[in-house]
Amino acid sequence: MRFSGLRVLKEGLTGNKGWRPHWRDPDPKPDYDIILIGGGGHGLSTAYYLARTYGLSRIAVLEKGYIGGGNVGRNTTIVRANYFLPGNAEFYSHSLKLWEGLEQELNYNVMLSQRGLINLFHSDGQRDAFARRGNAMINQGDDAILLDREGVRDHLPYLDFDNTRFPIYGGLYHPRGGTARHDAVAWGYARGADQRGVDIIQNCEVTGIDIAGGQVRGVQTTRGAIRADKVGIVVAGRSGQVAAMAGLRLPIESHVLQAFVTEGLKPIIDHVVSFGMGHFYISQSDKGGLVFGGDLDFYASYAARGNLPMVEHVMEAGMTLMPMIGKARVLRSWGGIMDMTPDGSPIIDRTGIDGLYIDCGWCYGGFKAVPASGDCFAHLIATDRPHPAAAGFRLDRFRTGRGLMDEEGTGAQHNLH
């Protein structure tokens, strides 16, 4: 079943009776070649690329809930490639290129909107830092434009330019950045993987990982034991818990990151806007709601909800940057569980157990990384070699100290995220 304008028109004229489910709902088989634990964006994209690129089909994606119910449906939908450090920069550049061809690749509308992203700066030091970042982005082959105060005003006239505490000096404009529809991305990859023979098994929680002689043998689930020679852990904020089933202790802390959506409004915010001093970011969805967020809640938690002090903090930042936001009514909020590494960069690597692989530690970058994460993790699982774009995401860098990627400039300490 392919989507097209003609197909939509035909179904609309015939009562929409020809549509079929996007993917099957199979029972788990006794054994597979590869099991992926986690049916979020990263797990589904990994399954898709394993099937599409490497021709593998005896693959199961095990999801303890429903597709789209985890972090892939609990984020602020931002897509960008404005990273600075070698190792991260080429990875997110690779991801953005995959995003730009994703709708044609999947024959599915993920609502990618490259509306542009503007990171504001508020001091001479921030200007210098963003100028360096912009030059690094251009050298990487991506796009960056350094805007002065009036250049920002041309794009974002509704900001408070007279704020004496946080004056707007300018901004770094990333025209190819933007947003995508988060659950549509999950559905598109699920549909594409299913079409290539992957079993997507919902309501199937993994309760144990079977290991014998240093080799993974399969998993235990709420729907019975399933054998496999290769198992990938792709469970975002639950990475530490699932890895513990294999006797592994990961350099991960899980924190809550809240996000908010207002009532639908007429179009006003044409870009993604990031407030450098207040750690506040905002865009407007296709339905008109303002989608925004800010800092982590700064305590370890597995609860997909937040606390009121951080709600107040985010609202204060929004009011400081754009006082007009005070007229909007917040309809809902949620919390995503962020798997935070000490250096702010992810892990895509083999573990010390033969056949067991890990993809985790996405910190704030999980959604924008979905295509490249799946592509690189699939390459690792299929070939047992790291993808060139993810060669720096080694697990042992935290043990040896070699190759740490301190993207946030916060040092290799959890408490400084």
UniProtKB/TrEMBL annotation:
Domain Rhodanese, residue spans: 34-78
Catalytic activity, reaction form: sarcosine + O2 + H2O = formaldehyde + glycine + H2O2; sarcosine + (6S)-5,6,7,8-tetrahydrofolate + O2 = (6R)-5,10-methylene-5,6,7,8-tetrahydrofolate + glycine + H2O2
Major location (coarse): cytoplasm
Superkingdom: Bacteria
Enzyme nomenclature, EC number: 1.5.3.24
Gene Ontology MF annotations: nucleotide binding; sarcosine oxidase activity
EC supergroup of this enzyme: oxidoreductase
PANTHER family associated with the record: FAD-DEPENDENT OXIDOREDUCTASE DOMAIN-CONTAINING PROTEIN 1, SARCOSINE DEHYDROGENASE-RELATED
Record protein name field: Sarcosine oxidase subunit beta
Organism name: Sedimentitalea arenosa
